[in-house]
Amino acid sequence: MRLGGPEALKLTARETKAFVRAREVGNAVDLLRLILAYCLGERGLRLTAAWAASVGLVDISNVALLYRLRQCGDWLALLVGQALAAAAPKASRGRLIRIIDATTVPKKGRDARKNEVWRIHSAFDLPQERFGHFELTDQQEGERLDRIPAVAGEIRLADRAYLQPARMARLMEAGADFVIRAGWKSAHWLDCKGRAIDLIAELRKAAERGLLDCPIWIKPKRGPALALRLVANKKPQQAAAEARRKARRTAQKGGHQLSKQTLEAADWVILVTSLAPDDFTMNDVLALYRLRWRIELGFKRLKSLIGLKGPPGTDERSARPHILAHLLIILLLEPLVDELEDSPRLADAA
C-alpha cells in the first residue's frame, strides 16, 4: 500500500489526533475510507453515513461524521506530504524541471463572499510528470516564486505573475535557475551600467529578425541588481493578432485605456532567465517555457478526473480536509492516470 499499510496509517492518525481510540470507527483504515467516500462522493453527510452503515463499514451519524472530518485536516496533510516525499525527484544530470502555478476552487455556502477562493499552490515536476508540491491557502495568500523550496540544480518555469526580483535572487542563491514570462513593464529594466532600458525600443530594433537574446539587469526594491538574460521571440501573425484582441478585451473589461506599447508587446513572447547562453541556446529557453502547458493538464486531471470542486460550506475545519482528500487521491492515482485516461470508458465519455 502506497500509504504504508494499516499500522502506518494508525500511527499517523494517532499522531495527528485524527484517530485517538476505537469507538464508532474501528480503525484508521476505515476512517480514511469513510472520509474519502464523503469528500470524493456527492452523497452529502447524511447519505454518506447511511451508505457506510449499509455496507458494514461503520455505523455513524452525520453529525459524528462531520466531527471526524474536521479532525482529519492535519492527518490528510501529513499523508499528502508522505505521498509527495515518496515520489520526490532527485536533482541529476538531466536537471529537474519544476513548473509552478496555482489553481483555485471557489468557497461555497451562504456566507461566502464574492471572489473568495481556496488557492492550491502547486509544482509539477518533469520528467517525472508528477505533482511535486502542494500548499493550500485562501485568497489572501498570493503566488510566490519561492513558496516551494528550491532544489539545487532545478530549472523553475513560471508565468508573469512570478516575476519577483527578490524571490528570483533567493532561487539563484539556492543553486536553482528559472525561466519566467515577463510583461514589457513588469520590472525596472537596466543595462550593465545601471541605466534604464526602454524595452519596447529594444523589441522594435529586433522586429525584423523577430528574435532578441541579450543580457539585462533587474533592480529589486532592495539589494543589488540581478544580472539576467532577456529572451524574446515574435509570435506568428495569427497568434499575435489573437494576443492583441485579448489585450483589447482586457482593457475594455477593466475600463482603462490600452497603450500603444502594450499592443506592440502583445506581438512577443518575452522571457527572463538565469540560464547561461553557453549552456542553453535561445531555442532551448523557448522550448523549456513551452513545457508550461503540462501543469495545466495536471490541473485538468485534478478537477475533471478526480472531480475537485469547491468544498461545501466555508468552515476551514471541514473545507481543508475536503480539498486535501482530493490532492491525496490524485497523488495516489498519478502512476495510473495515463491508463485511466486511455480506457475505452473514458475515451467514449470524452
How many separate domains make up the residues?
2
The class by helix and strand makeup works out as alpha+beta
Strand order of the largest sheet: 3-2-1-4-5-9-8-7-6
Low-confidence stretches: 340-350
Largest sheet: 9 strands, mixed
Oligomeric state of shown chains = single chain
> What's the tally of helices?
14
The share of residues in extended strands comes to 15-25%
Helicity range: 40-55%
Distance between the termini: 31 Å
Q: From the alpha carbons, calculate the radius of gyration and give it in angstroms.
A: 24 Å
SS elements, strand count = 9
Overall geometry: elongated
Q: SSE string, helix = H, strand = E?
A: HHHHHEEEEHEEHEEHHEHHHHH
Averaged pLDDT, please? 85
Q: How would you describe the overall organization of this protein?
A:
This protein is α+β, with helices and mostly antiparallel strands and 350 residues long. The chain has two domains: 1-71; 83-298, no CATH class. It is 42% helix and 18% strand. It contains 14 helices and nine strands. The chain has helices at residues 6-15, 28-40, 44-54, 62-71, 73-86, 165-173, 199-205, 237-254, 260-265, 282-289, 293-305, 316-333, 337-341, 344-349; strands at 97-106, 117-126, 130-138, 155-158, 177-181, 189-190, 211-218, 226-234, 268-273. It has a nine-stranded mixed β-sheet with strand order 3-2-1-4-5-9-8-7-6. Strand 7 and strand 8 (226-234) form a beta hairpin. The model is unreliable at 340-350 (pLDDT under 50).
